[in-house]
Amino acid sequence: MNSSQSESQFIKEKLQISNEELDDNESENDQDQDDENKDQEEENLKDIVNPEIKQLIKERGLNMVSYEDLIVEKKEREKELNENRQKLKESQTRQWLIKHKKREFIDFDDKERSKLKQYFRSLDGDGSGSIGLRELEDPLISLGIAESKEDVKKIMDQVDKDHSNEIEFQEFLDIIKAKEKGNGRSQKNTAIINFFKDMINGQLGDGDIQTKNLPFQLIISTIRRKKLLDAIMSTNQEKKKEGEKVMKAYGKLLAINNAPKQSNKQNDSKQPSQRSSFSNKK
């Protein structure tokens, strides 16, 4: 056997040994991981006393899910179930009212609710299924439903059943309907519902604002612009008064929301002068 063949044989033997060692290490790591997983499974089952529940968890392969995670998931499913029951109940109620020719008692039919759902999703920027105070400020103030940031917060608190500081679609509908416990339907509440119905059907006011197939944010912007113009130019005193109310509320909202930015700019402008005065002292 020449030297090149012997070298080749030597390398092959070394590679074989290396592969065997690697396989041994991998099997040891797998065993360590299995042991660690088993320890974690036992740890997760410690807090569960009921033997039937323990057995059920093992049979369904839920050992690696913590008890706390299971409780959270259970609550989420219960919440989803209650919401679906509520939707079904409302849908059945609407169908009953339609069948018995009592449409005047329906706030929004299925088609209108579908459109309102689109409006809601346009406010839900992150797709979480809920919207917060900041997303509601602009539309509620622009539409004249609220007059200040504090008003928006109060309206949210009235319908925020789970106190999450965010509202979901049904709570959004409750705001539009101005639904409060123990209160009957007021003239203002009816006006707000009619306002949204007109928006859904594509026309607002005297027909001068076309809203059909427009994105909700653009509709809000168009309505706000119209109200601001009414505040300045309208000869109709009622429209002028409503426009002035929106102008005042929206101006205040802009001032509050822009205040941190302005203070940061002022701080940034002060810093160079402070540095220059420090260098002059040196």
Instruction: Round the mean pLDDT to the nearest integer and report it.
Output: 72
CATH homologous superfamily of the largest domain?
A: EF-hand
CATH architecture of the largest domain: Orthogonal Bundle
Uncertain spans: 273-279
Which fold does the CATH topology of the largest domain refer to?
Recoverin, domain 1
Task: Say how many strands there are.
Answer: 4
Please give the domain count.
Answer: 2
- The amount of beta strand, in percent, is under 5%
End-to-end Cα distance: 84 Å
Q: Tell me the overall shape.
A: elongated
Main CATH class of the largest domain = Mainly Alpha
Element pattern in H and E? HHHHEHHEHHEEHH
With strands numbered from the N-terminus, the spatial order across the biggest sheet is 1-2
Structural class category? mainly alpha
Residue share in helix: over 70%
For the sheet with most strands, the description reads: 2 strands, antiparallel
> How many helices?
10
Rg is 32 Å
